[in-house]
């Protein structure tokens, strides 16, 4: 019934019940009986719900060719930011908007991808800080940005609230393609965009080849931060043609 990390988690939580039993011998009745945590139960149920995944794909990403087969339910936006960086290893260099959501830098520090904290400028070494200020329209001057393996880009930005235009995102995608970089695009606040700024980077030609995307439904539905309700908060990650939905 469960696969991969989920199966291993169940075996650790209930060694007496599941020890020595093959995955296909675990029934849904047994799984539901031991689901003491509402969040985990909702995650498993949502992952099995093809109709839900199809509805998410068609509602948010229908014109982009995303279907339910590209969607997977997991356990958290900020968790998966760290997991993505873990996949790339400690030798990669990241670039972040300055200012930006702190989880990008924090996760990179935890993964050992940065240099030491420099007290005089209050920044970490081996991170490319892309200055976004009123003077440059809250979009970095890419001609002065050094190459990075991973580019974190949030639009609308947290904390400035600035949404990148179609022309700006086109430049960002081309910059990533020219430098062999991967964009991790955070569109958690996309539903607040009221002009014609793109709500997803995948509206930009060529973005699928160099981008992943994160999107959080809890800002759409304004759910409270309780374990049960937060199970409906979704993160979308796309690598190439693949899309993951991660619940937090």
Automatic annotation (TrEMBL):
Signal peptide: none
InterPro entries named among the record's database cross-references: Aminotransferase_I/II_large, DapL/ALD1, PyrdxlP-dep_Trfase, PyrdxlP-dep_Trfase_major
Pfam family name, one: Aminotran_1_2
UniProt keyword Transferase, yes or no: yes
Residues covered by the Aminotransferase class I/classII large domain: 45-197
Superkingdom in the source lineage: Eukaryota
Cofactor: pyridoxal 5'-phosphate
One BP term from GO: systemic acquired resistance, salicylic acid mediated signaling pathway
Keyword field: Aminotransferase, Pyridoxal phosphate, Transferase
UniProt xrefs under CDD domains: AAT_like (cd00609)
GO MF annotation: an example: transaminase activity
Family indicated by similarity: Belongs to the class-I pyridoxal-phosphate-dependent aminotransferase family. LL-diaminopimelate aminotransferase subfamily.
Name of the protein: Putative LL-diaminopimelate aminotransferase, chloroplastic
Phylogenetic placement of the source organism: Eukaryota, Viridiplantae, Streptophyta, Embryophyta, Tracheophyta
């Amino acid at each position: 019934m469960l696969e991969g990390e989920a199966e291993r988690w169940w075996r650790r939580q209930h060694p007496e019940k599941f020890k020595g039993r093959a995955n296909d011998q675990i029934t849904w009745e047994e799984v539901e009986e031991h689901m003491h945590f509402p969040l985990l139960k909702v995650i498993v149920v949502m992952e099995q719900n093809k109709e839900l995944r199809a509805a998410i794909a068609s509602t948010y990403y229908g014109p982009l060719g995303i279907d339910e087969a590209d969607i997977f339910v997991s356990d958290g936006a900020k968790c998966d930011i760290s997991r993505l960086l873990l996949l790339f290893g400690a030798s990669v260099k990241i670039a972040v908007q300055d200012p930006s959501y702190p989880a990008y830098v924090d996760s990179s520090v935890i993964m050992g991808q940065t240099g030491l904290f420099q007290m005089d400028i209050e920044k970490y070494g081996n991170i490319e800080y892309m200055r976004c200020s009123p003077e440059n329209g809250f979009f970095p001057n890419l001609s002065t940005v050094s190459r990075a393996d991973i580019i974190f880009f949030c639009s609308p930005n947290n904390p400035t609230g600035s949404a990148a235009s179609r022309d700006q995102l086109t430049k960002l995608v081309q910059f990533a393609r020219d430098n062999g970089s991967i964009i991790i695009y955070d569109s958690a606040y996309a539903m607040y965009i009221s002009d014609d700024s793109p709500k997803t980077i995948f509206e930009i030609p060529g973005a699928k080849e160099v981008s992943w995307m994160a999107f959080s439904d809890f800002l759409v539905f304004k759910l409270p931060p309780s374990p049960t309700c937060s199970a409906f908060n979704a993160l979308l990650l796309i690598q190439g043609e693949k899309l993951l939905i991660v619940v937090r």
